């Protein structure tokens, strides 16, 4: 079905009246994007913050009266806050197929490949992790996940116990199992992450008792040789005592989900329990590693 999208700029205080106005004109959906490259990285629980300056895209059926809609915008009391509005045609395509076509096998380190479940592995003799992220975060394409996968590939995980804290799609837990780890636990507060992790275990022929998946409470009273936490800086800071207590003496901690400017503060926060190594950076993101004293 063909669509048209109306694009314009506005500011945050105008979002609600503009949304109501365009919905009355027949807009099927509205999308808001940052117009000034000022990302909001860690909203508080329950918040849905917006940027101060916004680019807005309103989706309309292709049969709509574009001239009438533009005239209504120009004549309304909101004309001064709907800036430079213009219609564009949105290509009619299979968006799921388009996403799949752009997600290719990726190598991490020497042994490990992450292979979309609909692709053939480029190297059948490698450690091939078949992945379909579903609705959960984690494909390996983001630097934070990639940094963790490279660490796992370079570590000796044979028969080591491991906790994947904030497992998302389960990509790190599954990679660890394929690389030789045992007694693996993967936890997340998002039910979609738990579903996606089970799905990706099945896709890689990993039995349910080889990776225990659930809410964070299932890891209570357990310590691990390795703990990997690819979450955001705020939770890493607030959960530091709990995460530290899950690492065995001489065990390893791997933290990611951090911007470069956050690394020093988080590293200092964990130095109470760990000997921390210098941050490893990829693009704007970093990975931290420490060994429990």
Question: Keyphrases for this structure?
Answer:
293 residues, alpha/beta, Alpha-Beta Plaits, Rossmann fold, 15 strands, elongated
Description:
By secondary structure, the chain is of the alpha/beta class. It has 2 domains: 90 residues, 2-Layer Sandwich (Alpha-Beta Plaits), CATH 3.30.70.120; 196 residues, 3-Layer(aba) Sandwich (Rossmann fold), CATH 3.40.50.150. 27% of the residues lie in helices and 31% in strands. The chain has 9 helices and 15 strands. Strands 8, 9, 10, 11, 12, 13, 14 and 15 form an 8-stranded mixed beta sheet that branches. A 4-stranded antiparallel beta sheet has the order 2-3-1-4, with helices on one face. Strand 5 and strand 6 form a beta hairpin. The N and C termini lie far apart (61 Å). The mean pLDDT is 90.
Give Rg in angstroms: 23 Å
- Stretches where pLDDT is under 50 for at least 5 consecutive residues are none
In terms of DSSP E residues, the strand content is: 25-35%
| Total individual domains | 2
Q: Helix- and strand-based class?
A: alpha/beta
Straight-line distance between termini: 61 Å
The CATH architecture classification of the largest domain is 3-Layer(aba) Sandwich
Average of per-residue pLDDT values: 90
Q: List SSEs in N-to-C order.
A: EHEEHEHEEEHEHEHEEHHEHEEE
Count of DSSP strands: 15
Count of helix runs: 9
**Helix proportion range:** 25-40%
Write down the overall geometry.
Answer: elongated
According to CATH, the fold-level topology of the largest domain is Rossmann fold
> Could you give a short account of the major beta sheet?
8 strands, mixed
User: In CATH, what is the homologous superfamily of the largest domain?
Assistant: Vaccinia Virus protein VP39
CATH class of the largest domain: Alpha Beta
């Amino acid at each position: 079905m063909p669509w048209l999208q109306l694009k314009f700029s506005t500011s945050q205080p105008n979002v609600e009246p503009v949304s109501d106005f365009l919905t009355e004109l027949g807009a099927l959906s509205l999308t808001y994007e940052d117009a000034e490259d000022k990302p909001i990285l860690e909203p508080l629980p329950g918040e849905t913050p917006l940027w101060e300056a916004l680019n807005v895209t309103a989706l309309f059926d292709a049969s709509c009266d574009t001239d009438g809609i533009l005239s209504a915008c120009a004549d309304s009391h909101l004309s001064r806050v709907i800036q430079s509005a213009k219609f564009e045609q949105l290509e009619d395509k299979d968006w799921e197929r388009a996403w799949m076509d752009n997600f290719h096998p990726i190598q991490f380190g020497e042994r490990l490949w992450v292979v979309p479940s609909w692709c053939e592995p480029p190297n059948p003799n490698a450690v091939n992790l078949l992945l379909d992220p579903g609705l959960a975060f984690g494909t390996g394409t983001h630097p934070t996940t990639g940094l963790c996968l490279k660490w796992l590939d370079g570590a000796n995980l044979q028969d080591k116990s491991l906790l994947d804290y904030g497992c998302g799609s389960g990509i790190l837990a599954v990679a660890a199992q394929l690389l030789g780890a045992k007694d693996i636990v993967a936890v997340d507060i998002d039910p979609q992450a738990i579903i996606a992790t089970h799905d990706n275990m099945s896709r890689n022929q990993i039995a349910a008792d080889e990776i225990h998946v659930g809410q964070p409470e299932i890891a209570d009273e357990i310590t691990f040789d390795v703990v990997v936490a690819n979450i955001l800086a705020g939770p890493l800071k607030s959960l530091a005592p709990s995460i530290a207590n899950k690492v065995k003496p001489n065990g390893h901690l791997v933290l990611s989900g951090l911007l470069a400017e956050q690394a020093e503060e988080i590293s200092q926060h964990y130095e109470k329990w760990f000997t921390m190594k210098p941050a490893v950076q990829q693009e704007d993101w970093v990975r931290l590693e420490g060994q429990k004293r």
